[in-house]
Description:
alpha+beta; 6-stranded antiparallel beta sheet; 5-stranded antiparallel beta sheet; globular; binds magnesium ion
Amino acid sequence: MSVRFTIGAVSDVGMLRDVNQDSYLASGVLAAVADGMGGHRGGEVASQIAVETLVASFTPPTFEQLTGAVKAANAEIIAQAAVAPELHGMGTTLCAIAVIPATNPDAARAAGVAEHLLGIVNVGDSRLYRLYDGALEQLTEDHSLVESMVRQGRLTREEADVHPQRNIVTRALGVADLVDVDAFTLAPQANARFLLCSDGLFNEVADEAIATILGSIADPDEAAQALVVAANGNGGRDNITTLVVDVAVEAAAADTNADITDPTIDEAPPPPVTMGGAAGEPLPDFGSGTRGDAAAPASAAESAGGAMDAPDAPKRRWWRRS
Ligand code: MG
């Protein structure tokens, strides 16, 4: 039994911004979204480095290496920022889902279940959702100031959704040599649909509306496009990237004569795609200068200062985006 993704992907600059700092990649075995941040052209460079390094480093395509590839992306962003002063301080989120070998593929094969699992990694506040049996569930945890305050009971979920500081992330790639990566696995379910997205979607479109679109539009490309249209219809204040990932668990023809000692995935993912905007949007002119809406990273004290209480014992710098 093999596991494959069919992905509909759209990345859009949105209604207000000049540049799309999101990047994504989509293949039959790996999907990722990265939401860059940083002045000048740092944001789009950081997100592009993240997806390029992820796909290049995800070999062998194991769970351990999926996490390793995220750490490699972090190191690459830091290395490139160190030699390019105009990119100093760039960073990005990265959220990805990949097909990985099951822990015991021989046993899985014998049991007639899928020989692969889904591996998920996340740093920052891009999100992975799952729609199954009509219910939408956020699978990743946001690494954001408001999420930590919700967990501490200091904000309600509803307050967090509209909080003016909801764009402050508490983890990102490019910030420090060591990065904490959330990583977990899921058993693949036939007919499960996943959504990878940047915050430009969920800050504009409520979960209920996201669920309705995902549940009513079968074609993943059309569903991804409809989500972007909904976000732009509600303001489109940020870049919007949506990847609708349909999972097929199928008895592949190759399974009947497969080398049962080798469960590795034999398809290398294609190169990543970095979007400068969907629907005919031209690529941005990277030489056009500093963007006014891309702030440099803020220290914890600056980010939390004055208007609100700081959460307990912050351990990292926070980044204010946009
Ligand atoms: Mg964003």
